[in-house]
UniProtKB/TrEMBL annotation:
Reaction(s) this enzyme catalyzes, per UniProt: N-(5-phospho-beta-D-ribosyl)anthranilate = 1-(2-carboxyphenylamino)-1-deoxy-D-ribulose 5-phosphate
Family membership: Belongs to the TrpF family.
Organism: Sphingomonas longa
Membrane-spanning ranges: none
Domain (N-(5'phosphoribosyl) anthranilate isomerase (PRAI)): residue spans on this chain: 3-205
Keyword vocabulary terms for this entry: Amino-acid biosynthesis, Aromatic amino acid biosynthesis, Isomerase, Tryptophan biosynthesis
CDD domains for this protein: PRAI (cd00405)
Listed name of the protein: N-(5'-phosphoribosyl)anthranilate isomerase
Pfam families per record: PRAI
EC number: 5.3.1.24
Keyword Amino-acid biosynthesis appears in the UniProt entry: yes
Superkingdom classification of source: Bacteria
Cited Gene3D superfamilies: Aldolase class I (3.20.20.70)
Amino acid sequence: MPAKICGLTTAATLDAALGGGASHVGFVFFAPSPRNLDFDAAPALTARVPDHVAKVGVFVDPDDGLLEQAVAVAALTVLQLHKVAPARAAAIRARFGLETWTAVAVKARGDLDVARTFTGAADRILYDAKTPPGAALPGGMGLRFDWSLLDGFAHPLPWALSGGLDAGNVAEAIARTGAPLVDVSSGVETAPGVKDVDKIAAFLKAARS
Ligand SMILES: O=C(O)c1ccccc1NCC(=O)[C@H](O)[C@H](O)COP(=O)(O)O
């Protein structure tokens, strides 16, 4: 079962994700996040990732300079964009030539309409829970949305399920939604930004079960 462990900042927790069989590992480049990865630390950390595992950079409305620097220091293979309009996602995708994901924040069924606007502009939709107005982060808050909102939705692009997943609910989430890829951050932490090797292993095992 393809799974992304997001917000990794240490070798031990990255190795736990790789050892547990993660298909994707995520690195956040957003200064306000407790998971922000320093440019100085990125090369040594991301060099541990074998070629068959995707290195996903997570960005919030990034400018080209930030993207260029992050792609260079972390040898990213996927760009995950939050708070980016379709035209900007298309421009980033064209400029960098990398697989490009866009996060779609979901609270109500109507929020899914946004996904369709990314056809031709992104390669994958990451459905994530909508964070409250004024929240510090647009993701990584451990919030779950009502999975039944995805019932019968004709996905316009390949997709992934995110938001409030953990070892205790990921198998049900996959069974309930048919998600082809799952993504987690808070659910494998002991505190915001503090990943736990045992929780990572348990999540990946549960996702496979
Ligand atoms: O994780 C962050 O700190 C973050 C900051 C800014 C934008 C996005 C961020 N995370 C995006 C992710 O892909 C998370 O894995 C996803 O939102 C799920 O998070 P969680 O509900 O905590 O598992």
